[in-house]
Structures
1.
Amino acid sequence: MKLLCPNCRTEMEPVVIGGVEIDYCPSCHGIWLDEGELQELAKYDAKEFRGVEQILMPPSTEEAQGGLSSSVSERICPRCNVKLYTYKYGGNSDIVIDGCPQCGGIWLDAGELAKILNYMRELDRPLTPEEEAIVRQALTSSRLRMKALEDEAVGKSFLARIANAIVNLIG
């Protein structure tokens, strides 16, 4: 059964990248990924995308104007026929994608797969010396705050023991 594109309702074509079969829209260049397929694609390097580079490319201005006219709230899951919801990929990125609340599939507009793969690689890269310094400073500051809180707690505990001892002596 051919799936209909959630964006432009064109029949999508199956495309295999590495060992992952995805559904690609030849009209608007978006892709449908079933649950877990994005994580599988993230394991591959650029050579796995040879021959299907158009999937990673954003559309031309003309294609974008014609192919991306649907409003996000009108997009329907090609598997379940339920409305897709939008969310920021990774929770804090600037990449907004559509997901199915029922089957867990996701819709990526043209060029969003490349953005997500770059975002994932950016998270995996080693920290720069400047970033390491910021992390060290934050950790040091956190440790100092924890030490102050511990000292304060010990101090309160000590004062409480003294107060109890005085009460026992007087009482």
Note: Residues 126-171 form one domain.
2.
Amino acid sequence: MKDKNKVGYCSPPKASQFKKGQSGNPKGRPKDTSKSIDNIYDIAILFLKECEQEILINERGENRSITVINAVFKQALAKAAKGDMRSIEFVSTMLSRSAQLKEAYDRRKLRVKAKRFQNEIIDQLNDEEFREVYKAVKSFREN
């Protein structure tokens, strides 16, 4: 027969045992806040602010003030020109992405201009002309 008050291996003291109905970890594991959307936006804003900070550089014997992001690109271009493969990869990626963004921006600008032009033409039409144009566009879309 086992002694109920015995303390030892597999028999912790009664005072340190979990009480009936009480969880072993009442507060639970804390939530991971590193993946919180608010934190991601805060980090992005902080990062962009740091990229806009001015730093002093010495270029051809003259001190100049440029933004951190400009300094990063200058350094990457200089290293790429010397043949550093990582810098070449970085610069080529940035060039292709910049070209894509510029192309998308130009397309959007063109669409906005076309929409304005379309609205100007529509504003100049009287009601009867507008109805004719509307019917023509509707029949064109149905075909």
Note: The CA atoms of residues 116 and 139 lie 23 Å apart.
